[in-house]
Structures are given as C-alpha cells and as structure tokens.
Amino acid sequence: MNLFFLSWKNLWARPGSTLLSLLLLVLGVGLISFVLHFSEKLENNLIRNAKGTDLVVGAKGSPLQLVLSAVYHIDNPTGNILLADADTLRMHPMIKQSLPLSYGDSYQGFRILGTDTSALRWYDAHLKAGRVWGKSLEIVAGASVAEKLGLEVGSVFFSTHGLVSGAEAHEDAPFKVVGVLAPAGNVLDQLLLTDLSSVWEVHEHEHPEGEEAPHQITALLIRCQNAFGILAMPRQINENTRMMAAVPAFEISRLMKLLGFGAATLRGLAWVILVVSAISVFISLYTSLSSRKYEMALMRTMGGIPLVLFAMVLFEGLWLTLTGYAAGIFAGRVGMIFAGKVIDKQYHYSFTGMPWLKAEQKLLALVIVIGIVAAALPAWQAARTPISETLADA
Amino acid sequence: MLRSLFLVVWFAPALLFSQQKISWDDLKAVKYDKVERVGPMWWYGQASFASQIQQLNGKEVIIQGYILPLDETGGYYVLSRNPYSTCFFCGAAGQESVMELKLEKPQRYSMDQVVTFRGILTLDNRAMSLNYHLSNARQVK
Q: Which of A231, A238, A247, A254 is most worth mutating to test chain B (most B CB atoms within 10 A of its CB)?
C-alpha cells in the first residue's frame, strides 16, 4: 500500500469531518466557478450584441429599457415613433448607417422583428436556405428559432399580439417562412425577421375603416461617422425632437457596474467559505492526530522515518482540497447548465460552452496552497510523534 | 557662470521633452462662431481656439478626466471633464469638455472611472468632429 492510497483511506476512516470539509470546499469553489462563468457569459452576450450599434432612437422613456428592447430584445418597447420623424433623422450627416425596427408581435414567445433587408448586413448574417423577404408577411427565421420551432422554408404561422406566447392571435394575416439564417452568433438567431410593412399590415384592422393612420416604427438603430456623432446626436435628438436617443455602450457599462456589485458580493461570500473550509481541513486533520498516534508510532517502529508521517498527513490535506476542487468545478458547471436552461427559456439567449477559465486555473493553485498550509502543522505534529512515550501509554 | 550653465544643462531636457500637465480649464477658451447649417434641424459651430490652446497643438500633455466608454471591447473611449450624468452628451457642458482617446495599448476602463492620461494633444476645428484628440494615450499612475 503506497502513501497516496493510505492517505485516501485515512480520510474515509473518519467520513463525517471529511465530508464536512469537502462540502465547504465544493460550496466555495462551486460558487466562485459559477459566478465566473455566469458573469463572463453575460458580459459576452451584452457586448457582442451591442457591437456596431452606436445609438438607439425610440419613443421617450427609459434609455435602458430602449436599449434592452431594441438591441437585446428582452424588454418591452418604450412606445412607437413616427416613420416620418425617423426618416428625417436618417438624413442626418453624422449617420453612417441606420436600421429601422418595428416589433411588438411574437410567435410562440419568439419576437417578430420588422426591418429592412439591410438587417442581414448590419448583423453580419447569411442565409442558410431560401431567400430574403420580398413583400410583407414573408419571414426569414433566425437559426435557433428555426431549430426550436421546427420552421423551414414554406412553413406558415399566425403571429400573436404582444411578446408572450398564448396571447391573442392575428388570424387573418398568415406569415410564410421564405428563408432560414445560418447561425450568426448574435441576437438575430432568436428572431423572426420580416418586412416593416408586415407589422403595419397585421395591425391595420385595429384602426377604424377609411382612416389612414401614419406609419410608425418602434426604434431606429444608428451607426455614427465618429465619436462626435455618438456624443452630440443624442443631445440634439432629445432636445429637438419627440424621440429619445440612448447610447448602448453607456447603458451597458452602467448596467454591468450594477451587476458587478452583485457578482462581487457573491465572490466575497465564496472567499469566506473557502477560508472556513481551510480551517475545517486543518481542524479535521489536527483532531484526528490524537486518535491516530498509536498507529503512527507503530509506523515509526516499522521503519517509517518522520518524513513519511509528514507526507502522509500532507497528502490527506491535498486529497481533500483537490477532491473538493474537482467536485466544486463540476458543481459550478451543473449550476450553469440549470441557469442556462432558465435563461434560454426566458430570454432565448444561449449560455452554453464552459471552458476551463484562467481564473479557475489560478483557483486550483490557490486550493493546493490551502491544502498544504492547512495540513502543514498537523503533518509536523505527526512527524514528531514520540515512539517510546506513545507506545508506553498504549 | 558655471552655476547658470549647470542650471541650463540640468533643465534643458525638461524643456525639450516637456510634458505639460494641463487642466480642462486650459482648454476652455474655444469659440464656436461660424455656424454651419446641415439638414433641416441640425447645425454646428466651427471651433476657433484661443492662442494659448493653439500652442498646445502637437505637444505631449498630461490630463485627468472621466472615462466614457463608446466601445469597451474595441478600446474606444472618450475622456470627459465631467462624469456621465453631467457630461457633454446629457448636460449643459460644451464640446470642449471632451477628448477622444487613441490608446497606445487597448485596455479596459469602465464608465466614470477617473484616469490620468499622457499623450499627444491634437486640435481639430472641423465641424462635426470632436475638438480634442489625445493620441498615443497611456495611463499615468
């Protein structure tokens, strides 16, 4: 029986305190790993989808809500703006590129986004099958919607008013899928794209006969020529028009700062748990010494030098912390899978893929140090087990 | 004689490679007279800088301000005299209270972080462009 195996056996000879130490380690490591992965995924999604959108213009309201609804499609729109107002704004010389959006309807919980065909270029998306829409009520489905709802070229469906599934359906205006997108790695994957006019057509019957309502859109995404545009245009728009402009980069930076406090609190808690687990490892090893002193003295008489006893107890500490680390990393991933399921269901964002993060590798080094430090004193004690006195007592 | 020579030698490098610590007040004297009309509801004034500001053109300066992130991953930031809530974009402050940063090395900063930068100041009086640009910008601890 070698020393590694002996240490492992020794640990499980006192399952209670070993399990307690392990549990604390799993909690601490798992929490840290979960927070790391979650904030990384969140930040990635937030930044990736805002990339290239300098400004969002919409109805006056909360700027954050406007960004969350028009850029991320997870919140309700702030209202509508007049197409005529948006068209005037689009001629602004500071604008490099702009994209009108109209949303508010959905199918099975997935949003239908009315826009023009330049959306594919804006989001760097490509067709996998079919063609882009040519007239109203034609749909190009994002990759993950098509997969989840089983939509393909030729499918027909009715939209529902509002953004939740199960609401009142617009049964007089069937949508027809004419194209499916290849995965774009951004928000387009979870959207059903159609022409702006589809949204007007679907809602036309809501107005009294003969009364031509002015066309409206929900928001306008803008790419500016330079930094001056990003800073100056919102002020001009907010002061001179009925519309509101928001800068996604600012709103996201503020949002991440707020979320950062939550993440920092959880991380702080995890560190406290790790410190407690280190103490628990130390106490567990130290208290075991007195009940094991006879066998250790015996090991000495059988020819074991003090170093062997020292190593044995040190290995016990390392076994504990390494097992705890492995189980904690595993637990963090299980947590992420569950959180990812909830987020996918709620917001249709994918939170999958979990590499072994650099911070987790650093955590491994730290956990090894914790194991060594916590086991050092008990191991030193074990190495100094006096043979004759201990055995004389026996 | 020897002493004054010593002084010249001692301070010459400092004069040659001057990195002037400036404040936003030094950059305040900008007039926007020549108003340019572009489009139905948009107009811009063209900047004319006071002579003490013109002297700073092309010089290495050190300046402190608040960060406004325009694209965090791309390392695209603006340095502002005021924090977000009262900056040029939302408050009453003028165009001369912000400066475009061209970072020497991409780095991440967050909104409203107070940072001191060293870099080459360039003036820009074109309409529809920021007036101040700081190139080769690097953080001063």
A: A231
Angle between helices A63-70 and A248-301 (to 10 degrees): 80
8 A C-beta contact, residue A336 and residue A38 = yes
Amino acid B111: pLDDT: 85
* B-chain residue closest to A256, CA distance: B110
What does pLDDT average to over chain A? 88
Please report which confidence band the pLDDT of residue A213 belongs to, taking 50, 70 and 90 as the band edges: confident
Determine the straight-line distance between the first and last CA of chain A, rounded to whole angstroms.
Answer: 25
> For A306-332, how does the pLDDT look when each residue is reduced to its tens digit (9 = 90+)?
888 899 999 999 999 999 999 999 999
Q: Kindly report the pTM of this predicted structure.
A: 0.81
Q: Pick the residue from chain A with its C-alpha nearest to B124.
A: A228
Note the pLDDT of residue B17: 55
The alpha-carbon gap from B20 to the nearest alpha carbon of chain A, in Å, equals 25
ipTM over 0.85: no
Q: How many CB atoms neighbour CB B83 within 10 A? A: 16
CB A230 within 8 A of CB A55: yes
- Tell me how far apart the alpha carbons of residues A281 and A28 are, in angstroms, rounded to a whole number: 13
Instruction: Give A351: exposed, middle or buried? Use CB within 10 Å, 0-12, 13-18, 19+.
Output: buried
Sort out which chain B residues have CB atoms less than 8 A from A257's CB and list them: 110-111
β strands within A21-125, DSSP E = 55-59, 81-82, 95-107, 110-115
Distances (CA, A) of B136 to A113, B103, B122: 42, 6, 11
CB B68 within 8 A of CB A228: no
Instruction: Say if A263 is an interface residue toward chain B (CB within 8 Å).
Output: no
CA distance, residue A3 to nearest chain B CA (Å): 48
Question: Rounded to an integer, what distance in angstroms lies between the CA atom of residue A76 and that of residue A78?
Answer: 7
Interface of A with B in 8-47 (CB under 8 A): 47
CA distance B133 to chain A (A): 11
> A358-383 and A15-50 helices cross at what angle (nearest 10)?
160
